[in-house]
User: Fold this.
Amino acid sequence: MGQQNIHDLFGVEIHTRPLSSSRLGLFSEIYRKKNFTEEFLQDSFSISERENTLRGMHFQNQPFGQAKLVTVIKGSIMDFIIDIRKNSPTYKEYGSIELSSVNAKVLFIPKGFAHGFKTLEKNTCVFYKLSNYYSPDHEMTLRWDDPTIGIDWKEIGDVHMSDKDKDGKLFSAIERDISF
Assistant:
């Protein structure tokens, strides 16, 4: 297990969205259908009021697996993904990338990855396009500090997180239940 260059995780793509600024502000395109083979069914966003808010590591089992297109509208995050596809050469490997409103990066995450992030600024807004609807019955939360995966969160400090994320399961406890 260990960290991989995010480009080396099979199927993961990084795009840069165009930014146009004027005296009125900013305009940016997030999604253009012809750039992706994945069909997206749901748009969602989160706003994290505090810096050092940790969300994740989340995924949905089949048949409700979700590919995700993630970008930051305001603020910045360190985004983390874990390959949970049992037949993948990078199974149990993770990668990370900084996404921000300034760098305009858009991360495409295929089905079969757990996803989470840590905010680097206050009032950070993250926008997601999802290839499947949210299904609480199929959602799983992997512990953010799972020793099997060993994510290096750098200077983690005092984090803010939901009870659901605090109660995430160890990889060893859910590995046989993962359907990818």
Summary: Residues 86 and 180 are 6 Å apart (CA to CA). The longest helix spans residues 163-166. The two ends are 18 Å apart (CA to CA).
